[in-house]
Write a structure and sequence with these properties.
mainly alpha; globular; Ribonuclease iii, N-terminal Endonuclease Domain, Chain A; 2 domains; 12 helices; 238 residues
Amino acid sequence: MQDLLALEEKLDIEFLDYHLLRRALTHRSYLNENSDTGAEDNERLEFLGDAVLDFVVGAYLYQRFPEMDEGELTALRAALVRTKTLAQFARQLDLGVYLRLGYGEAESGGRERTATLCATFEAVIGAIYLDQGIESVVPLVERLIEPTLDHIMAESLHIDAKSEFQVWAQGNYNITPRYWVVDEEGPDHAKMFTVEVRLDEQVWGSGRGRSKQAAAQAAAAEALLYINESGGDVPPDL
């Protein structure tokens, strides 16, 4: 219980149902090794949190930039809800410390794995939404995204990221980026796509979106962010 109270302080939220928060922090690997606990993993909460984040971030951008067109709003949202960004939010909240993982997953670095941290952050958002409604989600999400948004805007990382990355890739490696759909999930009316952008066989970025185009833009934006932060002399270790 003490760990949940410590996380509550970081979230600045007092849960009514601690079972929701505990479930949000339960990776399926934990249940594989503790099947008799009767617990549930966080994958359903992750699904819900993903949808809540799309709405909250979209509404925030809509209100903040009343003159911005749909295309740029979509690109900004994709940059803010991409896997690497959400994993960074999870790190700011130390979610990896509180995760319930199986022994093997923990030993192999699961607490720092980007995809796991992203999923955990989404699950926590889903748990907050179920426990207290959208009113408690909004201030937490806005507090986290504001500095990241300022960075994205300052570096123009959201503006036609695919074109920008193509110019960089051709200028530095004489290679045209290729985009690969590596995952599709959800029903036909609410698909979520995961796309990787590659130079030859090396993955430079990964992104998710409600369309293949949005996911591709998010992947290119991730690649550009890496280049901006590191110089891009070597491919990222994704």
